[in-house]
Design a protein that fits this description.
This protein is α/β, with parallel strands linked by helices and about 230 residues long. Helices cover about 45% and strands about 20% of the residues. It has a single domain, classed as Spore Coat Polysaccharide Biosynthesis Protein SpsA, Chain A, CATH 3.90.550.
C-alpha cells in the first residue's frame, strides 16, 4: 500500500499537465496518484491517464473533487495538490516525519512563480498569515491523516473557501505542522486581475465569508475579479 495518496483536482489543465505529472513520477513507489477531473473540455483526463494510478470524473467543484478523491484513496495519509503546484524535494519524507511526530495534518510554505516582483511579497504574507492563524490555503498543499479527514467531515460542499473551512475544522482537532520547505505554485490568479487588486479582493472575500456571506456568491465575484456583484 502507498504511504500517501496525492489527490489532484483538475479542470482544463491540458497545458502544463504533462510537466506537472512528470515531476511526480519519482514518487510513485511511495505515493498513489489520483487525478479527479471536473469535466474538462480539453484532453486533461486523457493526457493524465498514463501518469497516474486513477483518473476519476466528477461534477464541478473543487470540494467535491477532493472529497471523491479522498474516498478512493488507499493510503493512510492524503495530500491535496493543485495541478499548478510543485512539491519540494523530500516532501514525502517531511510529511511522514510530521505524522510520526504526532501531527494529524499540515501544509507547506509557498513560493509563487510568475512575471511580477510583488509575488515574492504575496508569498511571504501568505506564509506569515498561515503561521499566525493556523489556517492553510489549498495551494499550500494540505496533507492530513485520512481517518481525521473523514472524522471532521472532509471538505464542505461550498463553492469557495473550502480550504479555509477544512483548516478551521482540522485546527479544532489539533494544530497543523507548518513545513518551512516551500511548494512552488503559479501566480496566475494574481496576475489575471493584477497583483494589488487580487490581494485586496481575497482579503475582502475572506472578510465577507467570516461574517457569513454565501460562498456561492463570493465564488462568482472571485471568478470575475469583482468586489461587488454588478
Amino acid at each position: 500500500m502507498a504511504d500517501i495518496s496525492i489527490i489532484i483536482p483538475t479542470l482544463n489543465e491540458e497545458v502544463g499537465i504533462i510537466t506537472f505529472l512528470t515531476k511526480l513520477q519519482p514518487l510513485r513507489s511511495q505515493c498513489e496518484l489520483i487525478v479527479v477531473d471536473a469535466g474538462s473540455h480539453d484532453d486533461t483526463a486523457k493526457i493524465a491517464e498514463p501518469f497516474v494510478d486513477d483518473v476519476i470524473s466528477t461534477g464541478k467543484g473543487r470540494a467535491i473533487q477532493m472529497n471523491v478523491g479522498a474516498a478512493m484513496a488507499s493510503a493512510p495519509i492524503v495530500l491535496f495538490l493543485h495541478a499548478d503546484t510543485y512539491l519540494p524535494d523530500g516532501a514525502v519524507e517531511k510529511i511522514q516525519q510530521a505524522i510520526d511526530n504526532g501531527y494529524n495534518w499540515g501544509r507547506f510554505d509557498i513560493t509563487l512563480f510568475g512575471q511580477h516582483k510583488m509575488l515574492v511579497i504575496v508569498a511571504w504574507l501568505m506564509n506569515k498569515r498561515s503561521r499566525w492563524t493556523g489556517i492553510a490555503t489549498g495551494d499550500q498543499a494540505i496533507f492530513v491523516k485520512k481517518d481525521i479527514f473523514e472524522q471532521v467531515g472532509g471538505y464542505a460542499d461550498i463553492a469557495l473557501m473550502e480550504d479555509i473551512d477544512l483548516s478551521a475544522k482540522l485546527k479544532g482537532d489539533s494544530k497543523p505542522y507548518c513545513s518551512q520547505s516551500k511548494v512552488a505554485s503559479s501566480g496566475r490568479r494574481w496576475l489575471d486581475f493584477g497583483v494589488f487588486k487580487t490581494i485586496s479582493l481575497m482579503w475582502w472575500l475572506r472578510l465577507r465569508y467570516y461574517f457569513g456571506a454565501d460562498p456561492a456568491k463570493l465564488e462568482q465575484l472571485y471568478r470575475k475579479g469583482l468586489f461587488w456583484k454588478v
